[in-house]
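A brief tutorial aside. Many learners find it easier to grasp structure tokens once they have seen a single protein encoded end to end. The record that follows does exactly this for Enolase-phosphatase E1. Read the sequence first, then the structure, and try to relate runs of similar tokens to stretches of the chain.
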Amino acid sequence: MSKWVVLDIEGTLSATDQVLVVLYDYARPRLGPWIEQHGDDPVVADAVRQIKELSGHDDVVKALHDWMDADQKVTPLKTLQGLIWQQGYAQGDLVAEFFPDVVPAIRKWHGDGVKLAIFSSGSVAGQIAFFQHTTDGDLTPLLEHHFDTVNAGPKREAASYHKIAETLQSDDITFYSDVPAELHAAQEAGWKTVGVARAGEPYANADFSPHPTVWELS
């Protein structure tokens, strides 16, 4: 086992529907009100500026909804979603659920001295809230680092994995993901890689070669 294990979330640790259905449906009607209520927050203000710049128009909420409909991994959208989800988890509106093998596996790895980190397109704030409020309790003590498209970069580019390795100060890293393109990028950066083919998930029947493939974590 590597010194570090870096894990994707959606489709790897948790069902895609939990993000694309449960979390998206929770965030969608709250985006506009959140921007109105938190317009003075520098993080929100910067996200709004980026949305206008990227979309080319001033209808911020429409741009956000369009990106959600297309499942676009756009950074300011992820930032705002993360803030909304953070509050939702704190209020008890949301509870994170994992595939049955996940929590036993990460607890075992942690107990064996393996250091664990997350790399997800969801914001760091959203990731932390996700792991704090789960059906298995607060799992954040098991995790050393969180990475997203802001502090690391796009998940399908090798440069992002080089950047994470620099932060972790290690070349001994294994990345688990259900997306072959992400595994290719991590392998290009010199990481070990493992494809996770979850039954019923979008990439269940994908071609994971040349990456070793598992159907559950162990």
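Self-check: The first strand starts at residue 4 and ends at 7. If you spotted this yourself, you are ready for the next section.
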